[in-house]
Design goal:
With 341 residues, the protein is α+β, with helices and mostly antiparallel strands. The chain has 11 helices and 12 strands. Helix 6 crosses helix 7. It is elongated.
């Protein structure tokens, strides 16, 4: 029995190490590890529960050594997970005042037209957004958002990419829309993005270039979810997004269907993905779940991101948890950026 207990403890310790440091073991993209580590908040709760269970079990003298060993491993797993999430930020619910040079970026997977154009426009106006990335949003909905915003005193240009038109998982999952303030200049979606020849494989992303060449390159992304049948496509999507994160003037926002844990293998020179860094993690919101809205944000998965190149520095971020009943299963993320030059 002692040998069996020892083997169980060793196996549990190995599993805890893999789930706590998946990048070290290079398994963060493997099924089902990728799915498990996406919910680090739930893992922390589970490890804490296991530790408590085995501490109670330690009251039995016959099982005390085994139970205390298991409790110690589980407690270490909970602590490591909690510290990792804490370093990324358990939540900061304030944004600094906008300046003349700041740019505010909002991303919200709207689940088709579930949230309604007026709700999106109201939120964007309240957040004073200059760039709005809207995965799963049809061009017609984006145009209606722009009309509502114009009537509220903030006009926007609408850009759009759509392909692989299907009705599953949602009618508008095959479309991505970007709204950009005219104050940033004129923009155009590049042809290879529109025709899908250089894009995320299953769901569309949009690469918008400044016509005059002076503004940031703006990319609205929608990576496919890492379901078992899409694992290869999901990894390819992350690699493609990393390629867009080149050195220079780049802002990328959208539904990455990935956490920082999944990105870091593709990070360059200390950045989170390519040459870009995650603004929410830099400003205290990196552990706040943006999906799904049906569970508390600290137990959810932070899969919606705003990334920036070294041309920008984040001064604040905000995950909007007051819109959980708005219709989408994603929470909006708003980030404020300042140019570094």
């Amino acid at each position: 029995m002692r040998l069996l207990g020892f083997l169980i403890t060793v196996l549990f310790a190995c599993a805890t190490a893999v789930l706590s440091f998946p990048q070290f073991f290079r398994v963060e993209h493997a099924f089902p590890i990728a799915q498990i580590i996406a919910v680090r908040g739930v893992l922390v709760v589970c490890f804490a529960g296991v530790a408590l269970f085995f501490l109670l079990l330690a009251a039995s003298r016959a099982m005390r050594g085994f139970a205390l060993s298991m409790a110690m491993v589980a407690a270490i797993g909970a602590i490591v997970g909690g510290v990792t999430l804490g370093m990324r930020g358990y939540g900061d619910d304030s944004l600094p005042a906008a300046t003349e040079t700041s740019v505010r970026v909002m991303t919200w997977n709207t689940a088709g037209d579930a949230t309604g154009a007026y709700r999106v426009a109201q939120t964007a106006i309240a957040m004073d957004a200059d760039i709005i990335a809207l995965p799963e949003t049809a061009q017609s909905v984006g145009e209606q958002v722009a009309i509502e915003m114009r009537e509220l005193g903030r006009p926007m240009w609408v850009h759009h990419v759509a392909y692989n038109d299907q009705e599953v998982p949602t009618p508008q999952a095959w479309e991505t829309t970007i709204l950009i303030s005219p104050e940033l200049g004129d923009y155009s979606v590049i042809e290879s993005s529109s025709d899908g020849s250089s894009n995320t494989a299953v769901l569309p992303s949009a690469v918008a270039m400044p016509v005059d060449g002076t503004g940031p390159i703006v990319v609205a992304v929608h990576a496919v979810a890492p379901r078992a049948e899409y694992m290869d496509a999901w990894r390819d999507d992350l690699r493609w997004i990393a390629d867009q994160c080149a050195e220079g003037n780049v802002i990328i926002a959208g539904d990455f269907n990935a956490t920082i844990d999944h990105m870091q293998r593709f990070g360059m020179e200390g950045h989170d993905l390519g040459y870009c860094s995650d603004a929410a993690a830099e400003t205290g919101n990196g552990a706040v779940g943006t999906w799904p809205t049906s569970i508390p944000s600290l137990l959810g998965t932070p899969i919606d991101h705003v990334l920036h190149s070294d041309a920008w520095r984040p001064t604040g971020s905000l995950v909007l948890t007051n819109l959980d009943e708005a219709g989408s299963d994603h929470r909006p993320l708003v980030v404020q950026l300042e140019p570094t030059g």
